[in-house]
């Protein structure tokens, strides 16, 4: 009949054999079957997309690549706009204006660096099974390194399973090296090097953006708008820090503010977290001094005005508030030591208090330069300043090595529970021992340079030394926390030593067997 499909018999030679291609005798049947297959495939595709929303999303690799390219594009745009803005200024105004812009934005940049490094500290503590939450007396809602570090979804999906990072080869030699390391260690720990610190990422983006806007607006004559950039930035940071609602990690912000109160007013027993954070603040004394000068100029409406050229102004470089703010972290730490002596009666706390008191003459003898005749300061007070600087540096270095650190278990904190390239290069290596000791001595001496008020005009040099001091404190934190963990948990130290002894015995047996 018309319209019916021709059905060949089972003995028809047009039927395909097993493993052969489909051959149909009727052209109409071939067309209809082709249309049916097309409709069925399209229907299956639409149904699969409806059932799996991730199928229509871009791949994590593409998202990661896009974010990295966007970050580099943003950095290039900021550098380009900032450079063009600076070149528009006259030569006489350029250096002075850059000094002011640097004063407003370098404290927040250094704080950002400190948060990045603290995220690395927490990651090492977690890999070494150091119970830092117990040492710092943190609750269950504290931020671990996984919350501080914003891990890309690509690396999360690849965690604890073999994976490869082919996109890394499109960037730099460093990323190529990370790619090779990743292939060897199967992405267990290396991916954490390629993540952003969540608590510092917004500052990494916002602070340079605000500085670029400040330079651009001032160079184009918009002085009032340029002056508003540091004001808005500092106001936003203060509001986020004291925001009372349950967003932006309320428990963590409350714990931080409570610790600040306990440091400023040591009316209770001093905990490890109290003096640990106070020690970090001594490394950031220059940051606090620059913050004080920035806030002073904001309050007195001296931002982007001629008033900040005057050294004798309220917020100038000769202000008495500068040495007072520099010495505050050391005074807080001194009172903590005295409080510890009252509670425990240990004489070592008095020796520790003496160490912090040696920083006071370094700061105030340097500040006297602006209030004395140059001849008198050079002949009398400058030798005293040099002597107090050497005393403070050597005393602090001695205390770090003999008291804050335990050299008997040095670098044990890098003994990770899982195989890692960092543990291989850092654990039990003599060069780590020599590097930490030597760098701590050198940076202790250069830190005195930063504490001296009469040397602050070399702002790029002071910024570099401050960043190096923050890096020294980052190294110091590893061994200080490990030492405290071994004191509070002696069994853990015994277990670690026994494990290392067993591994060394195994290596010795293996070497003898090979011989």
Automatic annotation (TrEMBL):
<feature type="transmembrane region" description="Helical">
    <location>
        <begin position="66"/>
        <end position="83"/>
    </location>
</feature>
<feature type="transmembrane region" description="Helical">
    <location>
        <begin position="190"/>
        <end position="211"/>
    </location>
</feature>
<feature type="transmembrane region" description="Helical">
    <location>
        <begin position="231"/>
        <end position="251"/>
    </location>
</feature>
<keyword id="KW-0472">Membrane</keyword>
<dbReference type="GO" id="GO:0005737">
    <property type="term" value="C:cytoplasm"/>
</dbReference>
<dbReference type="GO" id="GO:0016020">
    <property type="term" value="C:membrane"/>
</dbReference>
<dbReference type="Pfam" id="PF03124">
    <property type="entry name" value="EXS"/>
</dbReference>
<keyword id="KW-0812">Transmembrane</keyword>
<dbReference type="InterPro" id="IPR004342">
    <property type="entry name" value="EXS_C"/>
</dbReference>
<feature type="transmembrane region" description="Helical">
    <location>
        <begin position="103"/>
        <end position="126"/>
    </location>
</feature>
<keyword id="KW-1133">Transmembrane helix</keyword>
<feature type="domain" description="EXS">
    <location>
        <begin position="313"/>
        <end position="512"/>
    </location>
</feature>
<protein>
    <recommendedName>
        <fullName>EXS domain-containing protein</fullName>
    </recommendedName>
</protein>
